[in-house]
Amino acid sequence: MSHTPTRADFDQYMVPNYSPQKVIPVRGEGSRLWDQEGREYIDFAGGIAVNSLGHCHPVLVDALKAQADKLWHLSNVYTNEPALELARELTERTFADKAYLCSSGGEANEAALKLARRWAHDNYGEQKSRIISFSQSFHGRTFFTVSVGGQPKYSQGFGPVPGGIVHAEFNNLDSVRELINDDTCAIMVEPMQGEGGLKPATPEFLEGLRELCDAHNALLIFDEVQTGVGRTGSFYAYMDYGVTPDIMTSAKSLGGGFPVGAMLTTDRVAPAMAIGTHGSTYGGNALASAVALAAVRHIDTPEVLGGVAKRHDLFREHLEAINRKHGVFKEVRGMGLLIGAEMAPEYKDRAKDILPLAIEEGLMALVAGPNVLRMAPSLVIPEADIAEGMQRLERAIARLVAGK
Ligand SMILES: *Cc1c(COP(=O)(O)O)cnc(C)c1O
Fold it and tell me: Which of 139, 42, 150 is closest to 382 using CA atoms?
């Protein structure tokens, strides 16, 4: 390459819907990354809860390379072995009987919502179309999913949104009771709100949603795009709660960095997605399925899932120690390796100011809204990287406190 790309090229050549950090990472290994200048970073961001086994994990690299020499893509005019194996593993390891494969979380949710509408339409008639979702929820950026999502900023300015969608308050069953009726086809909920600030649902809330759905013949949809595939320390978060949905979506950690999504459902609901009702050219792509299959088999094991619980405790201890010294957080919360630290009132909305300071100290982290510092590292991040990363985070926070 004669021209080495720079950050300025982003502003010149790319649509301005993102505002990436100044550095450009070029190589990753485990939970470490290196930029164009050879500077090294510890990765607590994990590609937004995607790089479930860190960067270039040998299990995933081997699966990708082996499949790359065999077969990449067929379309759904044919099926392929990795897609069939992935669907079998996902259904055998969960409540589900059937899988629909796609390429992202938004697409998986789009399929879930269309399935719920179509199932209600076919079984009860057209009037059963109401979808209940929650304020602050996030379900993706397709037009249906921004409309169902509970953050108006993501749908504003795009013209009339689809009808039949109402929003209740998360963790407030009474607010759902007020909105649900026999024309309700589905409730969509994240077991733990991710983008909405890392708020876990209470067990009573999810149990109550299950009862309300059953009472009104509505489907319960769990959006586990961010919480699924080991992220909370169980294979899926619904297993922690013991509440079983009718439809569940998965993406992010599922591919360990390769774009893939899945919508899972039961034999009762799946027939509504009959031949020709829905589809995607890339759904069940052989490369994506081969990588996801390797990720699922590696992650859904006692070693990896048990390690998530242990690492959760380490993250919490370090964050609480930082807080005892600097008093910047109001609360540290989350499940497994999806951890949030909400800023104290004196530092309101300053979580986002920590990110560039952390980059300068050699640490990548995330926010969930401007007021919550978020961490979603590799599920197998080495303990030494946690300790070193926390030292770097503390230096960044000390600079925030000192006013830089
Ligand atoms: C990230 C996310 C999505 C959207 O996934 P994409 O792959 O970006 O389309 C949907 N729901 C939840 C809960 C998410 O965290």
Answer: 42
